[in-house]
UniProtKB/TrEMBL annotation:
UniProt-recorded name of the protein: ABC transporter ATP-binding protein
Database matches in SUPFAM superfamilies: P-loop containing nucleoside triphosphate hydrolases
SMART domains per record: AAA (SM00382)
Keywords for the protein's UniProt record, in alphabetical order: ATP-binding, Nucleotide-binding, Transport
Organism of origin: Winogradskya consettensis
Recorded superkingdom: Bacteria
Molecular function terms from GO: ATP binding; ATP hydrolysis activity; transmembrane transporter activity
UniProt cross-references to Gene3D superfamilies, sorted A to Z: P-loop containing nucleotide triphosphate hydrolases (3.40.50.300)
Domain ABC transporter, first and last residues per copy: 5-229
UniProt KW Electron transport keyword: no
PANTHER family for this protein: ABC TRANSPORTER RELATED, IMPORT ATP-BINDING PROTEIN
Organism lineage string: Bacteria, Bacillati, Actinomycetota, Actinomycetes, Micromonosporales
Amino acid sequence: MNTLLQGTALHRAYGPTPALRGVDIEVTEGEIVAVTGPSGCGKSTLLHCLAGIMRVDSGSVRYRDQDIGLWSESARSKLRRTEFGVLFQFGQLVPELTAGENVALPLLLGGVKRREAQKTAEEWLDRFGVAELAGKLPGAMSGGQQQRCAVARAMVTEPRALFADEPTGALDVLTGEQVLGEIVRVAREKGMAVVLVTHEAQIAAYADREISLRDGALDPTGLGLRTRA
């Protein structure tokens, strides 16, 4: 498989506090990688740097051999609307928009005509078993339903890479595993790479490979890079 995304010697600090200390990571096309470790170890910061949400202080993030750290904010925003999908722990649906409108939003921002965007959004809501919610506002949905809609929104553009930050953290165990199973199923079907941040072993088990962080660096105990059989 070809390398899709590569982070090299990544450093990032918040004021005097280091969050990443020289992390190296490589993700190949269609691979699912779990990033694990205790709270505060730098997992979310790593994901945000890889997704181009924030810049590293030093090191490089290369997507298809291009250093996205050199790109403008508008270029990185466009990347996240087209070839990257981002999924957060609490979904972060726009509360004033219906489920269908939320899912259609990335397409509309990309210039897709409204009717086509709505049709595609409905197809993705159906793929995740929540087609009946297309006309409902987020406030009228359960947490699991909101997260399924958020997954559909993150995947509606069929990105080459999905970045999922604790996507099941706000859900009960059963619902969380159902949502993760759906993410993995669609990612396999579409050949989509996934970078999955989690502190739960049963969620990390869905990945092809697990990278463990501790204090902003790869875990020095030897568990920093594990490939599943």
